[in-house]
Amino acid sequence: MNCLQKSATKTYAAVRAAQLAGKSIGLVPTMGALHEGHLSLVEASLAECDHTVVSIFVNPTQFGPSEDLASYPHVLEQDLRLLEERGCWLVFAPQADEMYQPGHGTYVDVGSVAVPYEGASRPTHFRGVATVVLKLFQIIPADRAYFGRKDYQQTLVIRKMVSDLNLPVEVRVCPIIREADGLAMSSRNAYLNAEERQRASLLWQSLKLAEQMHAKGQTEVAVIARSMRELLATDELEAEYIAFLAEDTVQEVTHLEGPTVVALAAQVGKTRLIDNHTIG
Amino acid sequence: MNCLQKSATKTYAAVRAAQLAGKSIGLVPTMGALHEGHLSLVEASLAECDHTVVSIFVNPTQFGPSEDLASYPHVLEQDLRLLEERGCWLVFAPQADEMYQPGHGTYVDVGSVAVPYEGASRPTHFRGVATVVLKLFQIIPADRAYFGRKDYQQTLVIRKMVSDLNLPVEVRVCPIIREADGLAMSSRNAYLNAEERQRASLLWQSLKLAEQMHAKGQTEVAVIARSMRELLATDELEAEYIAFLAEDTVQEVTHLEGPTVVALAAQVGKTRLIDNHTIG
Q1: A249 CB contacts (<8 Å, ≥6 apart)?
Q2: Are residues B15 and B40 in contact, defined by beta-carbon separation less than 8 angstroms?
Q3: Average pLDDT along chain B
Q4: Domain layout of chain A by residue ranges
Q5: What integer pLDDT is reported at residue B78 of this predicted model?
Q6: CB contact under 8 A, B109 and A110
Q7: For residue B171, which of B134, B144, B140 has the smallest C-alpha distance?
Q8: Is residue B162's pLDDT more than 80?
């Protein structure tokens, strides 16, 4: 496929030349194994930008030592076909040693927004995310960059970095795309066996339950969270956390007042899944 | 002066427009109180770039709590006059709250090169330097950026950050500019009283002594360092450190073989000064 590029300097040169020629650039950073969620980001970029660049890089610095870096799905040929069909202009798919030279030592830390929830479970995760996204923003100086809402806390980390470091890019956050039974699309869903896949749909059911309880007037977070945990337990699922957060923050609320993001993480078999839903 | 700009977004817009019009941009980041050292950087940029941007910002995040942030010289009118005379295109001189919004939490850490020497004396210094320079590189996406060799370790920190984070800027490091008696130019020299100013010239004399001893065949670092300390002691100066470093690194050497940077720091009265000189 002629739009595949593995070199950071050649990618920068191509993007830069297009910009000097007056073209706007959209970037969709991914780890590959593309699903409809990713493709919805690509569609958003195609609609808003002259050229759409997709990066495909399974970033080692955002995986903890006991996590799934080695088993993370790699299906580059299939990804390239999907992107070509949609009219993607350039795919940047570097090798690990192109992104991290020997002796790499520089990291970006965004502070408090990266500390709880996913940051607590995965202590170096957001440092790795922020660092690689900053690098991608330098290699591909896009006008707009597209992220999925499923990784809610990640979107806050990226927005915080962009704001604090004056990065000249507009961050667009696009809605979660779900399977027919509500399971949020994720490359990690491929790890689930048939039985786990079925149980995983309870995550979305528990988020819908929160929405329904709130719609019927329940505003006590503790009550809603207890019901969610009870629902998850019906199929032996236990949430690592269920957090009710004032929208666009990681500030917990105890009473539902304004828009609130209900975010959760749970282990389904050996696969750790996250999801979230805004209510109120 | 019409080239003064205090707004980050307006500065970015001006630089970006110039680049889209095909102009190359040079950036000279400073903390103001400009001396001939700074102006040599401006001259280097003027010679190589279509437009020269100078930033003037006394960056609070690179000062420790007991350091001289409050007393650091501010002479903006004088600085602007000097820059206008030389044909500087734009001066970005933001207020602190333009650079650091309330709740700022993102920092860049470059790792091991920032740890010893200046990093040991000033634990958060290089984190603050790297962060503000990265921010300036985003606000002023220059083709080239100019730094003085006096801050030797700082130049390594900047180069490491630029390399590790794929920043699309060429880093230029320019020679130290010295007073007639050899004292390296520094805005902090203004703190020295007449007696301290005289004693301060011993720093350069000790660096010259190292060069002379090496020229006469001495290769033992311990011997040279002892002689340097003896010379400094003749006027009651004591180096905080004297380091012999393989050029472009913070790796100490014990025998002089290839090009070696002799770097030192010393307190002269209440003023902490640094200097360095390459020998071998």
Answers
A1: A113, A156
A2: no
A3: 97
A4: 4-174, 187-279
A5: 97
A6: no
A7: B144
A8: yes
Nearest by CB to B167, from A16, A109, A138: name it. A138
Q: Under a CB-based contact definition with an 8 Å cutoff, are residues B240 and B115 in contact?
A: no
CB contact under 8 Å between B138 and A163, yes or no, is no
Residue pLDDT, tens place only, B91-137: 999 999 999 999 999 999 999 999 999 999 999 999 999 999 999 99
- A104 as an active site residue: the answer is no
pTM of the model: 0.97
Question: Which residues in chain A show pLDDT less than 50?
Answer: none
DSSP assigned state of A252: B
CB B237 within 8 A of CB B266: yes
Q: Which residue of A has its CA nearest to B130?
A: A106
Q: Which of A111, A131, A166 sits opposite B105 (nearest CB)?
A: A111
**Spatial CB neighbours of A130, under 8 Å, sequence gap ≥ 6:** A107, A108, A109, A110, A114, A157, A158, A161, B106
What are residue B91's DSSP bridge partners?
Answer: B4, B54
Residue A115: CB atoms within 10 Å: 15
Q: Which fold does the domain A4-174 belong to in CATH?
A: Rossmann fold (3.40.50)
Position B153: which residue type? Answer: Q
Q: Between 2.60.120.10, 3.40.50.2000, 3.40.50.150, 3.30.1300.10, what CATH number should domain A187-279 receive?
A: 3.30.1300.10
H-state helical runs in B140-270:
152-164, 194-215, 221-233
Question: How far is B276 from B175, CA to CA, in rounded Å?
Answer: 11
Q: How many CB atoms lie within 10 A of CB B85?
A: 9
3-state helix, strand, coil in chain A (%, to 5): 40, 20, 35
Q: Minimal Cα–Cα distance from A174 to chain B, Å? A: 24
Q: Which residues contact A24 (CB under 8 A, 6 or more apart)?
A: A48, A49, A50, A51, A143, A144
What percentage of chain B exceeds 90 in pLDDT? 99
Judge whether A221 and A210 are in contact, CB under 8 Å: no
Residue that the structure tokens 């393989």 belong to: B246
Look-up: residue for tokens 């993370």? Answer: A72
Read off the pLDDT band of B2 (50, 70, 90).
low
Asked whether the beta carbons of residue A108 and residue B104 sit closer than 8 angstroms, the reply is no
Q: Which amino acid is at B190?
A: A
Would you call A166 and B141 a contact, using CB atoms and an 8 Å cutoff?
A: no
Q: Which residues pair with B276 in a beta bridge?
A: B263
Angle at A118 between CA A112 and CA A123, to 5 degrees: 70
What phi and psi, each to the nearest 5 degrees, are found at residue B221?
A: -60, -40
- The CB density around residue B196, as the number of other CB atoms within 10 Å, is 16
Instruction: Mark out the alpha helices in chain A (DSSP H runs).
Output: 8-20, 36-48, 76-86, 96-99, 118-121, 125-139, 152-164, 194-215, 221-233
